[in-house]
Design brief:
The complex is a heterodimer. By secondary structure, chain A is mainly α. Chain A has helices at about 10-40, 50-55, 65-70, 75-105, 110-120, 125-140, 145-170, 175-185, 190-215, 220-225, 235-240, 250-280. In chain A, helix 4 (about 75-105) runs antiparallel to helix 9. The longest helix of chain A is centred in the C-terminal third of the chain and has 34 residues, at about 250-280. By secondary structure, chain B is mainly alpha-helical. Helix content of chain B is about 70%, strand content about 0%. Chain B is extended and about 100 Å long. The chains are: A mainly alpha, B mainly alpha.
């Protein structure tokens, strides 16, 4: 980039200084995440780079911690649980959240501000408070230590994300389309599925992804509400980091980094699609 | 339209039409409102059960403690008229001796010991040993001579203090946990005074201080980055955005794991520092307040960069150029033109980071050691280890009040509906 001619020397220094500063902050953001990737191929049971690794000796690298993930029953159970609970919680949150967002977007919605604040509140309240409250309350219904209990808890956490993303795609949604469908004789449900859903699909999908990730990455509620049968990946990592630090955690962490990259790509594609759709509408 | 809505004689026609129109419009509006609300009902019911009721239960737990009242109702009844001086009358003490034997039999004396001990530390063993001593005594003997046997089992039963603690723990609704959570206590006369040792207020203070430091650090790091990204060409900015979003999307546990690998005694940072000759011996960085702050700054930095960037992108760079072309040096131009315009993003990011860090639990629990613990960690401790659920609930309710206050500020200055994702 060429700098404008009226820039003084101080200004130039500031410009390059800013560039360097921004670069350093990006290193600070990325480096910790990238450091664990090579460490996960450590042949030794340590969390540090060995001499051999630094000398790029192939014998110092191994896949043993990745094999460990697939052979250790605790990890396989955790992986299964994380996906099962995440998918169920995301489905529940998306279903209820999408329908509610359509109502909230209507100009006739009563108490809109209050209802929105209430529905978004699970995002604001600290998890430890939610966990304590759910533990007290869910005990009465025998939900502690069960899959349904965790799915309900995680779905409640995912709802705000669905509301936010779907409401965002509903901005500019023309309510007269709904009325047009009704006037042509379709039932409200039919209009909802055939007219509304196709138009807001990108928002619904990214809401579902947010809800899934929220559940997939959640550990505080799992610590309080799950029994040994409902251990999830973060729960397993948490106890691993507390009890005996073992590079299997690094291998799992690396796989999770790959997963989040895939997720980021998906969301970016959805965003572009949504923008394209809106461009067509405009 | 029915006949009744036709104009009555003497009323001007347009008035009547207005009235029926208004009625129709109101009915239509009511129907539309009803229909819109119907969409929200299923989720409201779900959130009420899954989220609101649990929070309500926690608030209730912080003032509700029926344990002692359920364990020794008759003793408490007998103690009701006691003036709190000297020992209670012999009848009440005998009643309690009988209760103690029963509790020793059904193994509930431990629960009572815990409850009384909470109000008068050091009395847990008194209650337990008395229960053991009275377990084998004959019922008739207890009913006749229980008061003497109590004092024989432990001299503490001759003191009024332990009886006062017993009576106080027998109240079903209590403000006691809030007093404890605020480091206050009730004197014998019923006045409220500060406790000698300040535990929880100190911890709240430390939590707020750490949240403040983390917020400042995210501003120091996030502002220049967002500023640079906002001024960069769109293609560059999009690539840099990936570097901000990837950490944002990466699992919290992964990022915490990374900091453990970096900061531990023979970790990456220490090895690098020693290889560079900065230090001779590894620094103790993990399990300190320092590690909590640095890891949380890393984790929360995207929450600062994203709102800042979205505001800065909307600031027209020609304002700055205009100021400088008219002779303003860059720094005053920045302070007077750009900074005020970026304030909405700055306040949104700062409040968001502050709110999230005040309630944080996982990262301090894993990298904080004893030094880097925050208020959430002590709540978890009382939930899981000391089993003092009511105190945990009281501490949690205070934290909730704090968060709601901050959220209210956020809503006033930023608008809660402006929360954006990515």
């Amino acid at each position: 980039m060429a700098l404008p001619a009226y820039y003084g020397p101080l200004h130039r220094a500031g410009h390059y200084g800013l560039r360097i500063l921004a670069g350093l902050v990006l290193v600070f953001l990325m480096l910790p995440i990238l450091v664990i990737v090579p460490l996960s191929f450590n042949a030794q049971p340590y969390f540090t780079f060995t001499e051999g690794m630094l000398a790029l000796d192939p014998d110092a690298y191994s896949l043993r911690w990745y094999r460990e993930i697939w052979t250790d029953a605790k990890w396989t159970l955790a992986i299964r649980n994380s996906f099962a609970i995440g998918i169920a919680a995301a489905a529940l949150a998306t279903l209820l959240g999408t329908v509610a967002a359509v109502g909230l977007a209507s100009p006739h919605m009563p108490f809109k501000r209050l209802v929105t604040a209430l529905l978004l509140s699970p995002m604001i309240v600290p998890l430890i408070i939610i966990a304590a409250g759910m533990f007290f309350f869910y005990t009465n219904f025998g939900l502690v230590g069960t899959y349904p209990g965790l799915v309900i808890a995680h779905a409640a956490l995912g709802v705000p994300f669905v509301i936010i993303t779907v409401t965002a795609t509903l901005v500019g949604f023309d309510q007269s389309l709904f009325n047009a469908g009704l006037s042509l004789g379709a039932s409200p449900t039919r209009v909802f599925w055939d007219v509304v859903i196709p138009l807001i699909r990108p928002g619904v999908i990214s809401g579902a992804l947010f809800a899934f990730v929220t559940s997939f990455d959640e550990v505080v509620l799992v610590l309080f509400l799950a029994g040994p049968e409902q251990r999830t990946i973060p729960r397993q990592m948490f106890s691993g980091l507390r009890e005996q630090i073992n590079p299997t955690i690094l291998a799992v962490a690396t796989l999770l980094v790959v997963l989040s990259m895939a997720l980021l790509l998906t969301l970016e594609m959805l965003r572009r699609r949504s923008e394209r759709l809106r461009g067509v509408e405009a | 339209m029915t006949d009744s809505s036709l104009p009555e004689p003497g009323v001007r026609r347009s008035d009547a039409l207005d009235r029926t129109d208004a009625a129709n419009a109101a009915r239509n509006e009511r129907r539309r409102r009803g229909r819109a609300f119907l969409f929200v009902v299923p989720l409201l019911v779900f959130i009420a059960f899954a989220f609101v009721a649990p929070i309500g239960t926690m608030l209730f737990r912080s003032v509700y403690n029926p344990t002692t009242a359920a364990l020794v109702p008759e003793t408490l009844e007998a103690l009701r008229d006691w003036d709190g001086e000297g020992t209670p009358d012999a009848e009440a003490m005998r009643r309690f001796a009988v209760d103690m034997k029963r509790m020793a039999g059904d193994r509930t004396s431990g629960q009572l010991a815990e409850e009384v001990n909470r109000l008068l530390p050091g009395t847990s063993s008194v209650v337990k040993s008395t229960a053991r001593a009275l377990r084998r005594v004959d019922d008739a003997e207890l009913a006749a001579n229980g008061d003497a046997l109590l004092v024989e089992a432990s001299e503490r039963w001759a003191e009024p203090g332990i009886w006062r603690a017993l009576r106080r723990s027998g109240r079903t609704y209590t403000e006691g946990y809030y007093l404890t959570a605020l480091d206050l206590e009730m004197t014998r006369e019923g006045d409220i005074q500060q406790r000698d040792t300040q535990i929880y207020l100190k911890l709240y203070g430390k939590t707020l201080w750490m949240a403040f430091v983390i917020t400042v650090l995210t501003i120091v790091l996030g502002y220049p980055l967002a500023f640079y990204m906002a001024g960069a060409p769109p293609k560059v900015a999009n690539i840099l955005m990936v570097f901000v979003l990837l950490p944002f999307w990466t699992s919290l546990l992964v990022r915490t794991t990374a900091w453990i690998a970096l900061l531990q005694t023979n970790g990456v940072v220490n090895s690098t520092l020693m290889a560079l000759g900065v230090t001779n011996a590894p620094l103790e960085m993990l399990y300190t307040q320092f590690s909590t702050i640095i890891a949380m700054t890393h984790i929360l930095l995207p929450f600062m960069v994203l709102p800042l960037y979205s505001v800065m992108r909307g600031i027209d760079p020609s304002y700055m150029r205009a100021a400088m072309s008219m002779g303003s040096p860059p720094i005053p131009a920045f302070l007077r033109i750009y900074l005020p315009m970026s304030l909405p993003g700055l306040s949104a990011g700062a409040l968001l980071v502050f709110i999230i860090s005040v309630g944080y639990y996982i990262t301090p629990a894993l990298v904080g050691g004893t030094d880097g613990q925050m208020i959430s960690n002590i709540i978890a401790f009382h939930m899981q280890q000391s089993n003092n659920w009511e105190l945990a609930a009281a501490l949690g309710s205070l934290l909730l009040a704090l968060i709601l206050l901050l959220y209210w500020l956020y809503d006033r200055f930023v608008g809660a509906s402006n929360i954006k994702l990515g």
